[in-house]
Specification:
Length: 404
């Protein structure tokens, strides 16, 4: 066993360093069917106004407001997609349906509930103002309005907007392809019975979900043994095809921990140890051609917490997101949180509301092997380094995973 020679970086410093070294992948054009969940690579500006014509908001009668209080002759109809062709003259009304074009000459729509229908005439209420019950052209969106900013993920409203504007292809960032590999001689594939001293590889499946959630594509690379040559071959093959490699295990200082020296021989290791709990041996390297390698610790909670703190923001940056971090909110501790000397600690908590406060309760033993501390957690409470810790009732920052 040798002592690690890597400097211990502060968690925040390491996170900043990872992002500094993370590129943004180039743009490509996709159809709207491919666009959900992708990230806009350019601003989108409206080249049309919405609505394009004065469109009725209700079913009723299009009138001239000056005719309010009168008995008007019904001269035709304007339905959605089937406009009234003529011009509305004084003393007349046109039946209009929701989405129908307001006929020329009309300046208001009376709701059907407000008129007295008398054969081919209607009596409309007095004092009806101009501009009632229809959407004026450009009321929703003017030509030149920015509807989408570069870096914005494409959700439902965003896609609806661009479709409404007639845009059928969008420039989005390429999705990162992430190779996912577990390392360790003790690991067996899920579904196989572990022999003496063996355990089932669970990290790859946990990380598969974590990577997919970011919008990246995953290539599952299986289990690499703790032997330099096979590990090297797997890694070298994978980085030809992937933008980023995520491994778990093999980054502490045991003689079987081979990931750091391998990454050093292939590229440049920027982070080899972090003042973080869980996750001290987290490793980050850059490889030729702008590729990234993340060596996550083997303990299941350590691998997922370091994924949250370092890898998730980087995968979001690769695909061009402008918001890289989980939302953070102050929470009130319902328990005494001990600090961990010089390390930043991310404690797993559930949250509930008490008045205006979000109150954080520990998920129990915070052992780095206990995945149950993360299952169902709503947030990671960030306890900064220090001697004293934070007594119950203190307010601290939390990374929100999911609100209750
Ligand atoms: P390591 O960082 O390789 O020293 O691994 C530390 C510990 O994490 C191991 O002793 C295992 O108990 C656990 N571990 C490593 N890899 C995995 C994995 N893929 N799935 C589940 N547990 C793992
Ligand atoms: Mg190992």
């Amino acid at each position: 066993m040798r002592a690690s020679t890597y400097p211990m970086l502060a968690a925040e410093e390491a996170a900043a360093l990872v992002l500094e070294r993370t590129p943004v992948l180039p743009a490509e054009e996709v159809s709207l069917a491919q666009a959900p969940g992708r990230v806009a690579a350019a601003d989108v500006v409206a080249e049309r106004r919405l609505p394009a014509f004065p469109a009725s908001a209700v079913d009723g009668y299009a009138i001239r407001s000056a005719d309010g209080g009168g008995r008007l002759r019904v001269v035709g109809e304007s339905a959605a997609g089937r406009p009234f062709s003529g011009r509305l003259e004084a003393g007349s009304a046109a039946r209009i349906l929701t989405g129908g074009v307001l006929p020329e000459g009309a300046d208001s729509v009376v709701m059907v509930e407000d008129v007295d229908q008398q054969g081919d005439h209607v009596v409309v209420p007095a004092g009806y103002q101009k501009g009632r019950n229809f959407h004026a052209p450009g009321a929703d969106l003017e030509r030149g309005d920015v509807v989408l900013r570069r870096g914005q993920p494409l959700g439902s409203a965003e896609l609806g907007l661009v479709a409404a504007l007639g845009i059928d292809r969008l420039s989005v960032h390429r999705r990162p392809r992430v190779g996912l590999m577990s390392t360790g001689d003790e690991l067996v594939e899920v579904g196989r019975e572990p022999g003496p001293g063996q355990i089932t590889d669970s990290n790859r499946w946990a990380l598969l979900a974590a990577v997919r959630e970011t919008g990246a594509e995953v290539e599952l690379l299986g289990i690499a043994p703790d032997q330099p040559q096979p590990l090297r071959e797997l890694v070298v093959g994978a980085i030809q095809r992937c933008d980023a490699l995520v491994t778990s295990g093999g980054v502490s200082v045991g003689t079987h921990d081979l990931v750091k020296p391998l990454l050093e021989s292939l590229g440049e290791v920027h982070v080899g140890r972090v003042k973080l709990r869980p996750g001290k041996p987290f490793t980050f390297a850059t490889l030729p051609d702008g590729k990234l390698a993340f060596g996550l610790p083997g303990f299941p909670v350590s691998s997922l917490v370091t994924f949250e703190v370092f890898v998730r923001p980087a995968l979001r940056k690769l695909q061009g997101c402008s918001a890289l971090q989980r939302p953070q909110l102050p929470v009130r501790l319902a328990y005494d949180a001990l600090a961990t000397g010089d390390r930043t600690e991310y404690q797993r908590v559930t949250l509930h509301r008490e008045g205006p406060d979000l109150v954080a309760t520990s998920t129990g033993s915070q052992s780095s092997s206990r995945l149950m501390s993360l299952a169902g957690a709503h947030a990671l409470v960030r306890i900064p380094p220090g001697a004293e810790g934070y007594p119950a009732g203190s307010y601290v920052e939390a990374l929100i995973l999911e609100l209750p």
